[in-house]
Amino acid sequence: MVSRVIPVDDFDLVIFGATGDLAHRKIIPGLFRRFVAGQIPDTAQIIGAARTEQSDDDFRAEAAKSIVEFGGVKKDDPALAQFLPLLSYVPIDAKGDGGWKELKSRMRKRAIHAFYFSVAPALFGDIAERLAKNGIADSKSRIVVEKPFGRDLQTARALNKMLAQYFAEEQIYRIDHYLGKETVQNLMAVRFANILFEPLWNAQYIDHVQITVAETVGVAGRGSYYDKSGAIRDMVQNHMMQLLCLIAMEPPYHFDPDAVRDEKLKVIRALEPVEAIDIVRGQYQADEDGDGYLADSENPDSRTESYVAMKVRISNWRWQGTPFYLRTGKKLRARTSEIAITFKEPPHSIFEDAGTSGAPKANELVIRLQPNEGMNLKVMIKEPGPGGMRLVQVPLDMTFADALGPEGADMPDAYERLIMDVIRGNQTLFMRGDEVEAAWAWTDPIINAWEESKNRPEPYDSGSSGPEEALRLMHRDNRRWKEIRA
Ligand code: BG6
Question: pLDDT per residue over 47-83, tens digit each?
Fold first, then answer.
């Protein structure tokens, strides 16, 4: 199956923080791949801006290195030589006057203007103000802001307010890179493009939902950032919340940015507060291959969680009585993200009294987000062979790469897709200001209650499935976590 590439219109994209990690690991290699795919016109300009004094050629040389290292491209790939002339560089002082006039002179009147704020949130205000005051951004320009968007409701509100002084909501693209993942969007396709699931998608038929984002990496190298954040701020308030919303929301009337975001917002607002008994925090311990969290975070007294599991309830008609269990953590057994929907057992089994073994088990739909993107639906069938009606559960397993062929396996990275959406002016996969604030309004009390308590996170072994306590969270409800495996 050949995927269709729709070229975007001509654009000038300015990357603030162009010498930083995100720009070199994700943004620049991503733009290169879109260029190779034929989506970016060769008249487009990608302008790097940062404090470092360097020439256009220096920047191109650095960019080429990143594309080779992080994009898996050969040094002598002819496409590289075609792509690099699109790049240029302007040294800029985000807090002063230097570089802004030069930047303005490089922007073309007729192209789409997008400004990617790949910098610390503390600089968002300075940059927004200078873009406006120097007449570089106008009412048609777009800005892209990275996570973390605030660290609580108050700071997120302040950020929204500050950006609103210079830009309308329609111009602000708040990135949550999970929304750019192919299979995350597939959640909407599966739910709203099939008649099969939606009639059963409610508390009457769904027993519970498990959302797992497990990682094998620790926090070494970014411990000082992570230690001020922890799993709830780093993963739950944003990525896991987005997954939860896509699973739980009502069908939007149209696949339109505000229609989708209105429905997500309703889910966030319907979340019940989480009681202390329904949440487990963990911290990974050292093993022979590496240090534990306390060493990685360089904070021997840290109470920050590198793992969290929680039971979440949504207070609305559709989900009354169906719990959602969320868990995410670092240094776990495998890197895997999946959503498992366990349906209820059939209300009456015709087989039980017929001398049969193997009573019907609940159907389960597992949507694998990464790796091996795909779906697995567990159904009951008759065990083959003579001698009575024995039932057995079998998987209807589909890996998207197998179903769609090699083109299906070659999925664009989340950043590639999202940047192209910015240029197209499509905000569907970006968070709206009120959505971010509502998510903080729900997580703030959870974080505050923990900060006020004297408790420490539960220790767990690196390479395990998380702390024992998290198992008990499920056992209490007579349920089990799905195994974490790649
Ligand atoms: C980032 C978090 O937003 O997402 C990281 O800050 C985390 O801590 C990462 O590792 C996970 O993203 P992915 O795409 O690797 O699942």
Answer: 999 999 999 999 999 999 999 999 888 888 999 999 9
Q: Domain range spanning residue 450?
A: 179-406+431-475
Same domain, 227 and 315: yes
My answer on whether 319 and 397 are in the same domain is yes
**CATH code of the domain covering residue 362:** 3.30.360.10
91 and 136 both lie in a single domain: yes
**What is the spatial distance between Cα 94 and Cα 49, in angstroms, rounded to a whole number?**
9
Report which protein residue has its CA nearest ligand 1's atom 9. Answer: 235
Residue 484 placed within a domain? no
Tokens 């050292």 belong to which residue? 286
- Does one domain contain both 447 and 301? yes
Domain holding 102: CATH number? 3.40.50.720
Alpha-carbon gap, residue 288 to 274, rounded angstroms: 36
State the pLDDT at residue 355. Answer: 47
Which sign, positive or negative, has the C-alpha torsion 153, 155, 161, 163? negative
Which region among 33-47, 288-302, 435-449 has the lowest average model confidence (pLDDT)?
A: 288-302
- pLDDT tens, position by position, 260-299: 999 999 999 999 999 999 999 999 999 887 789 999 999 9
The stretch 234-255 carries a mean pLDDT of 97
**Residue 482 placed within a domain:** no
**Which residues are CB-neighbours of 307 under 8 A, at least 6 positions away?**
231, 280, 281, 282, 283, 284, 327, 328, 329, 330, 332, 457, 460, 466, 467, 470
How close is the Cα of 176 to the center of ligand 1, in Å? 10
Q: What is the pLDDT of residues 3-12, one digit of tens each?
A: 678 899 999 9
- 386 and 255 in a single domain? The answer is yes
Best of 147, 222, 239 for a ligand 1 pocket test (most atoms within 8 Å of beta carbon):
239
Cis bond before residue 148 (omega within 30° of 0): yes
Shared domain for 118 and 226, answered yes or no, is no
Model-level pTM?
A: 0.94
Write out pLDDT tens, residues 113-125.
999 999 998 999 9
d(CA 254, CA 97): 45
Tokens (6 digits) for 16: 């603030």
Q: Is 234 in the pocket of ligand 1 (CB under 6 A)?
A: yes
Encoded tokens for 429:
């996969």
Is the CB of 176 inside a 6 Å radius of any atom of ligand 1?
A: no
